[in-house]
Amino acid sequence: MRVHIISDMEGVGGIVKGDQTNAGRPMFEEGRKLYTGEINAAIRGAKAAGATEIVVMDCHGAGEGYTFNSLLPEELDPACEYVVQEEWTEYTGFLEEGCDAALFVGMHAMAGTADGVLNHTVSGQAWQNLWFNDTRVGETGINAALCGTWGCPVLLVTGDEASCREGQELLGDGLTTVAVKKGIGQTSARLFAREGARVIVSDVDLGAAETTAEEITKAGGEAVAEHVDVTDQAETLALAERVVQ
Prior knowledge:
The structure is a single chain. By secondary structure, the protein is an alpha/beta fold. It has 2 domains: 2-181, Rossmann fold (3-Layer(aba) Sandwich), CATH 3.40.50.10780; 186-244, no CATH class. Helices cover 33% and strands 21% of the residues. It is built from 7 helices and 10 strands. It has a 6-stranded parallel β-sheet, with helices on both faces. A two-stranded antiparallel ribbon has the order 5-6. A two-stranded parallel ribbon has the order 9-10.
């Protein structure tokens, strides 16, 4: 049995900060270790299920020389081979030769998913929405389409709860998912409001924030929506000052 493991970094257990996924940041080496550990878990599972050939394809763009090259080769299970690409989804050789199963490890939710940890689609700066034949997809959908081109079924998606939900909605209830963490977003805002807190819902997408604030208000809570881009330090600090006031 030939198994293709397609991996990303943001959906790995213990990874919640951008500094853990970006080359050159102090926490990146910690992220690489966690990342390699989850890939190894998938390799062990594939071997236990009878895999005779396993190829890992790193699809995480960490920047610098670590783009699609973020795992730790010296810690990787020797039962597999791994591929370093120049471009995302560039390598298709294993699929073209015929592959029995694909396992998606460390997936994150598509851009705009309220409870998606480090959610984005391809590039958080350049992309917002992507559709395949009128179906909105994230990177799980892109990778699934790649596998489907050569008739390879996707049997597993691991990541946060949001990415697992996204995978099942796209690929069906027969998909096996393993959620390794739960994102905190709209849900936490509702819970705070239920306990009597006055809530400020902030988002780079003001419309999404307003929708959440309206839902809280209709449920009897008190909430207002604010626009904020958390990549802009001055804007984030200004929001914090307004919250205190």
